[in-house]
Amino acid sequence: QVHLVESGGGSVQAGGSLRLSCVASGYPSTYCLGWLRQTPGKERVGVARIDSDGETAYDDSVKGRFIISRDKAKNTLYLHMNNLKLEDTGMYYCAAAVCNRGWESGYRGQGTQVTVSS
User: Fold this and answer.
1) Rounded-to-integer distance, Cα 115 and Cα 84, Å
2) Model pLDDT for residues 8-28, shown as the tens digit of each residue
3) Where in the chain does DSSP place strands (E)?
4) What percent of the chain has pLDDT over 90?
5) C-alpha distances out from residue 41 to 44, 90, 91, 104, Å
6) 58-84: per-residue pLDDT in tens?
7) What's the CA gap between 82 and 63, in Å, rounded?
8) Strand, helix or coil for residue 110
9) 87 closest CA partner among 38, 46, 51
10) Which of 22, 36, 57, 109 has the fewest Cβ atoms surrounding its Cβ within 10 A?
């Protein structure tokens, strides 16, 4: 059974940093792990992804500011969020899915809220 549990969200001023964590277990080792963001009135979109070989990919909106990483020994996925902007506000979900398939085809956690204020 796949379990994905996020933590680390909160409120931060623009320009600040946050680190999200996701304890992930039970997913096939070939799956990609990622972080999704959903803002009110918009679809949930992937912002960062890491595959089983450690290759990463980012949405243009977060490139150069966010870093996805994982600690296999701790079964934990991270999202290091730097230079946060107002538009980064949203619910962030940890996700696991077959690489190159839509995230909605896989699994996701309950989410953690990030609020960026001016």
Assistant:
1) 10
2) 999 999 999 999 999 999 999
3) 3-7, 10-13, 18-25, 32-38, 45-50, 56-58, 66-71, 76-81, 90-97, 107-108, 112-117
4) 97
5) 10, 11, 12, 17
6) 999 999 999 999 999 999 999 999 999
7) 10
8) coil
9) 38
10) 57
**62 and 79 in contact (C-beta within 8 Å)?**
no
Entry field: residues in the chain: 118
Token look-up 């696991």 returns 96
Written as six digits, the tokens of 24 are 């992930």
Indicate the SS3 state at residue 93: strand
Q: What does the alpha-carbon distance between residue 33 and residue 15 come to, in Å, rounded to a whole number?
A: 26
Q: How far apart are CA 40 and CA 114, in angstroms?
A: 12
Q: Scanning the structure block, which residue is given the tokens 């949203």?
A: 90
The 10 Å CB-count burial string (b at 16+, else e) for 30-49 is ebbbbbbbeeeeeebebbbb
